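Question (not urgent): is this output format expected?
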Amino acid sequence: MHKDFKKPEFSREELHAALHANEDEALCLIEDADKWAEFKAKLEAFVKKARKIPVLGGMIDDIICMIELADSYIKKEYSDIPVGTMVSIVAALIYLISPIDLIPDFIPIIGYIDDAAVVLFVLGFGVDKDLDKYRRWKENNRKNALDSFEQILAEELAEVIGDGYLAAVIVSEENIIKLLVAMEQDSELPADCIIKEVNIPVKALAEFEVEAEKDVIGVLDETIVRESIKWLNGMEKRTCLEPDFDDRWDDFVIQEG
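Got this back:
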């Protein structure tokens, strides 16, 4: 930071004028999905850079949420927000990548203080509550969609199991689900089983932001207890990582599939 620089304080009039200057352009973006898509790409590039800027880094989550909210609104997926508020949000996003600032960008870091001030100004008008409401809506949508996905996956696994009964679900390092399937529901241990393999739908899970190993295991745990899947009597309905299954292989006699 320049030794002679003092952090500026912007008046409400200055901040309001900065937003107002972008309102017409914001309205055009809201009404034109193609123009919005081009602008969104620029915003995403800006966010990658902004993560490393201390002045903006602390509000990146809010900036990303503003982008996602605008995207959902323009795609007509979400409408629980006044159009005037939406215009203010997009106007603030325009300001973030505008070459015209309240203070110049030639001083590193300092040139982003007005960007932060504009975002905080918009959030202070209640947009923070709109973002929280949108986050709840998005999370509920994600949970509902994930629940539907788990039901579909359970039906697919049930089809693989066929007339048999699931005895164990093992996840290998190669993103393979190994299903141990017994043909008799009341088999005593060690039970005769065959192994049927299914690929974990990694790409589909990534769309639900499910990528960490523990989260994948959690989804599979929710899947394998669905009514469409028949289990061998007495078996624990839990997903197991292959290394953790080593001491349980003696409970099964693996037959050729």
